[in-house]
């Protein structure tokens, strides 16, 4: 409603109040019309959207989808969790409209999409701090260097004493995601120079978390939100990369500013043709980018700067 200034004349004041009331009624009417138009537009959007990929990213897109479904009940969005690699396989095969990823797309995946003449757009939706954790009862590991992590996950170190001389001579129980996960690829590239991880592998991140909880000499790594959800039963390890100090802890601040050595962006890769021809998918992606900041925080990840989401929205409009 408009704000009116008080003036000396009673007649003018009365007129102003009358105009204000009329203006308010008009504005309320316009607002109701806009709401009705929005509701109608939402009801008019129908169709299916198919996505797959990273189980790390899935909590964000699933949370967004819950809100989306409430506003667009005639759109069905399916979100699989085959892992980043598995998701890209389906994306390349033309089975999905989007692919969630916890790492950059690989050159061979780019080439496969190019061969299939599938054009895509990359959108960043959050930041993650891949978290290394040990059993809650572990009282000797406070931080690990990249070299020490390499010893553990290459299989070179069999006991904790092999990792560091003042650690106990107890057998290490190391756990890792399997090769279908972008988390595996990211850790392999950053820590092992793309070497093979020899730990016990599992496709289900929750199983990895439980394995560390159940083994006194256990160690594992997973997305930041998996640690946040289970931090009462795990002990996060600080990470040292440059050989100085006693490492950096994964926190919202260190992940956001990149000072945590295992920080990484999380992505959605969208098929351009689907954005152009599938109104339901186009609407879903716009809704995703509008709500990614809050959804990523609520999911236990670190939101990006506003300007990143604004740039992504511009990219979306350019494709559309």
TrEMBL record:
Cell location: Cell membrane
Bilayer topology annotation: Lipid-anchor
- Protein's job: Part of the ABC transporter complex PstSACB involved in phosphate import.
Give start-end of the signal peptide: 1-21
- GO-annotated biological processes: phosphate ion transport
Single annotated GO MF: phosphate ion binding
Give the PANTHER family listed for this entry: PERIPLASMIC PHOSPHATE BINDING COMPONENT OF PHOSPHATE ABC TRANSPORTER, PHOSPHATE-BINDING PROTEIN PSTS
Give the matching CDD domains. PBP2_phosphate_like_2
A Pfam family for this UniProt protein? PBP_like_2
In this protein, which residues make up the domain named PBP?
A: 42-290
The superkingdom listed in its UniProt entry is Bacteria
Q: What is this protein called?
A: Phosphate-binding protein
Task: State the family it belongs to.
Answer: Belongs to the PstS family.
Complex and partners: The complex is composed of two ATP-binding proteins (PstB), two transmembrane proteins (PstC and PstA) and a solute-binding protein (PstS).
Q: Name one GO cellular component term.
A: plasma membrane
Q: Where is this region: Disordered?
A: 24-57
Q: Where is the composition biased (Basic and acidic residues)?
A: 29-49
């Amino acid at each position: 409603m408009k704000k009116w200034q008080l003036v000396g004349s009673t007649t003018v004041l009365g007129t102003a109040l009358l105009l204000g009331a009329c203006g308010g009624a008009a504005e309320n009417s316009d607002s109701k019309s806009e709401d009705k138009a929005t509701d109608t537009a939402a009801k008019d959007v129908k169709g299916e959207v198919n996505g797959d990929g990273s189980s790390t990213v899935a909590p964000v897109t699933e949370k967004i989808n819950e809100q989306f479904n409430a506003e667009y009940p005639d759109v069905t969005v399916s979100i699989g969790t085959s892992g980043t690699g598995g998701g890209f396989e389906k994306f390349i095969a033309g089975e999905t409209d989007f692919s969630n990823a916890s790492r950059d797309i690989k050159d061979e995946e780019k080439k496969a999409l190019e061969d299939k003449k599938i054009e895509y757009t990359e959108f960043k939706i959050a930041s993650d701090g891949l978290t290394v954790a040990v059993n809650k009862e572990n009282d000797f590991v406070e931080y690990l260097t990249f070299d020490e992590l390499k010893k553990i996950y290459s299989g070179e170190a069999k006991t904790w004493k092999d990792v560091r001389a003042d650690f106990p001579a107890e057998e290490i129980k190391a756990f890792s995601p399997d090769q279908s996960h972008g988390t595996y690829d990211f850790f392999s590239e950053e820590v092992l120079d793309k070497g093979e991880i020899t730990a016990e592998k599992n496709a289900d991140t929750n199983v990895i978390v439980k394995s560390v909880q159940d083994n006194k000499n256990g160690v594992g790594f997973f997305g930041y939100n998996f640690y946040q959800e289970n931090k009462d039963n795990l002990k996060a390890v600080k990470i040292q990369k440059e050989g100085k100090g006693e490492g950096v802890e994964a926190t919202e601040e260190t992940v956001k500013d990149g000072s945590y050595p295992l920080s990484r962006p999380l992505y959605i890769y969208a098929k351009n043709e689907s954005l152009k021809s599938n109104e339901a998918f186009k609407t879903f992606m716009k809704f995703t980018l509008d709500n990614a900041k809050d959804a990523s925080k609520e999911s236990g990840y670190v939101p990006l700067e506003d300007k990143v989401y604004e740039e992504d929205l511009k990219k979306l409009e350019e494709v559309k």
